[in-house]
């Protein structure tokens, strides 16, 4: 999994309500890596001039219904449906 893909996965799993420790376990990385990816993602979102305040506000609220995410070990892809795991 590339760094940009990992950062996107961290952001998605975080939006789904997983803790940094849970995200680290799912992705097979250190919690410090997840923490850095979260900081980098937040910094990138805050620098995006095309995003208005309403869009930023809606993205900061956690999702009410956490989704169980899994990693396809063959492809490294994050999946939320068991049918997609090879």
Overview of this structure, please?
There is one protein chain. The protein has 86 residues and is mainly alpha-helical. The protein has one domain. Helices cover 52% and strands 5% of the residues. The protein contains four helices and two strands. Strands 1-2 form a two-stranded antiparallel ribbon. The longest helix has 17 residues, at 31-47. The two termini are 16 Å apart. The relative contact order is 0.16.
Fold blueprint:
Blueprint: H1 3-15, H2 20-27, H3 31-47, H4 53-59, E1 70-71, E2 78-79
Antiparallel strand pairs: 1-2
Helix pairs in contact: 1-2, 1-3, 2-3
Characteristic key phrases:
two-stranded antiparallel ribbon, 86 residues, mainly alpha
- Mean pLDDT, as a whole number? 75
Radius of gyration: 13 Å
Helix/strand-derived category reads mainly alpha
Strand content: under 5%
User: Helix count, per DSSP?
Assistant: 4
Q: Work out the count of structural domains.
A: 1
Strands of the widest sheet, in order across it, are 1-2
Work out the number of β strands: 2
Helix and strand sequence: HHHHEE
Q: Low-confidence segments, ≥5 residues, pLDDT <50? A: 54-61, 82-86
End-to-end CA span: 16 Å
Overall 3D form: globular
Can you summarize the main beta sheet? 2 strands, antiparallel
Helix coverage percent: 40-55%
